[in-house]
Design a protein that fits this description.
It is a single chain. With about 290 residues, the protein is α/β, with parallel strands linked by helices. About 40% of the residues lie in helices and about 25% in strands. It has eleven helices and 13 strands. The strands form three sheets. Strands 10-9-8-13-11-12 form a six-stranded mixed β-sheet, sandwiched between helices. Helix 1 links the parallel strand 1 and strand 2. Helix 3 packs across helix 4. It starts with a strand and ends with a strand.
Length: about 290
């Protein structure tokens, strides 16, 4: 039952070793720094250089994946007799999912004997990655593409994605949060704790004072939401904030010993909106 290929996009921020471990394929995404185009493939990238440029005021923008790019990625697998399961960046944050639907509809006409399933993760960054790893495990366990699709659709709203950022103005400029929320975060060293909600959009969830307070609050919220018996894999991602990420990992290891914790960098596509020193925690919970 392993005759299907699992795709995700580069915003899942998976390193080359994690991509190989999961046995999945990545669709690249384009981003721009001061007008210069770059292609992000979800592998290692120069995080320090990118976030240094962001901190210095570089103009960074992104673009969604277009239907022709999806077709180019999916068609070779379909020609080999593989079915397709694609897990997308949240439709609440990007138009890429809608582009994938356009591509899938065209390819279904061309390959009527093949199954092509598109999943809106309602998540971003390693929130997508958690679903990708779940799908990979299901496939390895012999689940069919239909069984895996149904399970991931049910699991989506149990992916808890909590994060904090140093500068909320990046999210404000990208239209991801309101100006009022951005102003609040700049006052009195208050660090809003944000989440990706059930609609796949970013909203304010809690708050803390200072970076250490934010780490403590993330662990506290995780303790309230996590389903420890169903969550053996936890992701931490950061925007060039290794010390904060290590501190968060240490705290989680103390509270939830025995869980596998994977730390990655927030890539340039999501990082262009979260900015330098963002810190994100992803786990399987009761609800978002």
């Amino acid at each position: 039952m392993d005759n299907y290929t699992i795709f995700t996009d580069a915003t899942a921020d998976l390193t080359e070793s994690l991509v190989k471990e999961a046995g999945i394929s990545i669709i690249p995404m384009e981003y721009f720094v001061d007008g210069k185009p770059f292609l992000y493939e979800g592998m290692e990238f120069d995080a320090k250089g990118f976030y240094s440029a962001v901190a210095k005021g570089a103009s960074v923008s992104t673009t969604q994946i277009n239907p022709s790019s999806f077709e180019a990625a999916f068609r070779p697998e379909l020609e080999k007799g593989q079915d397709i399961l694609y897990i997308s960046l949240s439709s609440g944050l990007s138009g890429s999912y809608n582009s994938s639907i356009i591509a899938a509809n065209g390819l279904r006409e061309e390959f009527p004997e093949r199954k092509i399933h598109m999943i809106d993760s309602l998540a971003a960054a390693v929130g997508e990655a958690l679903l990708v790893f779940t799908a990979s495990r299901l496939r390895a366990g012999g689940k069919s593409i239909d069984e895996t699709y149904e399970k991931i659709m049910a699991e989506r709203k149990h992916v808890c994605m909590l994060f904090t950022v140093d500068d909320l103005n990046h999210l404000r400029r990208g239209g991801r949060i309101s100006s009022a929320t951005a102003i609040l975060g700049g006052a009195l060293n208050i660090k809003p704790i944000l989440r990706v909600n059930d609609e796949g959009r970013i909203e304010s969830f809690s708050k803390a004072r200072g970076k250490k307070g934010a780490v403590s609050k993330l662990v506290e919220l995780m303790s309230e939401l996590i389903l420890p018996d169903e969550c053996d894999l936890i992701f931490i991602s950061h925007g060039d904030a290794p010390e904060e990420a290590d501190r968060l990992k240490e705290r989680i290891s103390e509270v939830f010993p025995g869980h596998r914790i994977i730390t990655t960098s927030i890539g340039p596509v999501i990082g262009s909106h979260t900015g330098q020193k963002a810190l994100c925690l992803i786990f399987h919970g009761k609800h978002r």
